[in-house]
Amino acid sequence: MGSGDLRGPGLWTTSVGSLPKPEYLTTARTGRARREISAEDLQELERTATREWVEFQDSIGTDLVVDGEQYRGDMVAFFAEELAGFEIGGLVRSYGNRYYRKPIATGAVGRDHAMTVDWWHFAQSLTDAPVKGMLTGPYTICDWSFNEHYSTRRDLVLDLAKVIRDEALDLEQAGARYIQIDEPAASTRMDELDLVIEAMGVVTEPLSAHTITHICYGDFHKAYPKMLEIPVDQIDLEFANSHYSLLSEFSAHPFSKYLGLGVTDVHSHELEPVDDLVEGIRKVLGHLPPERVFVDPDCGLKTRSPEEAKAKLSSIKKAVDVVRAEL
């Protein structure tokens, strides 16, 4: 199957990236950590879960599909484990009662093999819709790791940027037309936005694919409009959780890129009424034309149950269908 360009007049539906792992996979991942099952058996279950999520997205008519990151424990540790120059440290608490093993940069960072291309190929083979290439950005990998090698954070970030650029180029060569470089850490240190911008320039400069970054849950009012200097085609922002407050900034300084419009709160078990999502989409269309808008959840859905995630994605699709009919 092929990864063509998106069809239709905009308001394309997608997901931010991560989707919840089914219970059989979380059980298997625990078993693998205890050496109770083989790496091959675990990978087979990761492929099964990936197939189920791609098929679900197809079943509701998602325009731009994600693989759901069923093969990743954590968005930073996954890459650190594959790169030269990193060791994996002990458990640290990230958010809520969730823990991850914090990577440690102990040497020069390097990459000697593609890390995500096989998974992208697999997901793309399952659908006619385009599948996003999904990468964690250099700033976030640095910020969520300990640095015991580089003299400055900037040196580590820029070396990581070259590594992520090479991975993005491999994804593009494989056929990915949409590549997302996640930078959730950018929202927590707005004083380093210049470094985020510089590093993203290293990643995206040679790419011809449609590039996206996702930044979640920060004080965007302080970062706007400077965030528009991040050299990507699209910025994905949460709106549901912040009650669309950033739209007041759009009135003063128009948003100049494609927008990933988060319309459902990923921290809530509650399923928002479709009418609420419709109203949110309409608000944003007062500022941007539909052909510059992708509609998705606020952030990755991995903290929800599979049933909750499916319900939220289905509601997004229903809301978009309502607004498309009005247009």
Can you characterise this structure?
The strands form two sheets. A seven-stranded parallel beta sheet has the order 1-10-9-8-7-6-4. It has a three-stranded mixed beta sheet with strand order 2-3-5. It has a single domain (12-71, 122-136, 167-326), classed as TIM Barrel. Helix 1 (23-33) runs antiparallel to helix 2 (39-59) and helix 6 packs parallel to helix 7 (193-204). It has eleven helices and ten strands. The protein is of the alpha/beta class and 327 residues long.
Shape label: globular
Query: What assembly state would you assign to the polypeptide chains in this entry?
Result: single chain
- Class from helix and strand fractions: alpha/beta
| Structural domain count | 1
Largest sheet: 7 strands, parallel
Q: N- to C-terminal separation?
A: 31 Å
Question: Tally of extended strands?
Answer: 10
The overall pLDDT, averaged over residues, is 94
CATH topology: TIM Barrel
Major sheet: arrangement of strands:
1-10-9-8-7-6-4
Radius of gyration, in angstroms, nearest whole number: 19 Å
Could you state the order of secondary-structure elements as H and E?
EHHHEEHEHEHEHEHEHEHEH
CATH architecture: Alpha-Beta Barrel
Tally of helical segments = 11
Q: Quickly name the level 1 CATH class.
A: Alpha Beta
Instruction: Give the % helix.
Output: 25-40%
The poorly predicted ranges are: none
- Indicate the proportion of strand residues: 15-25%
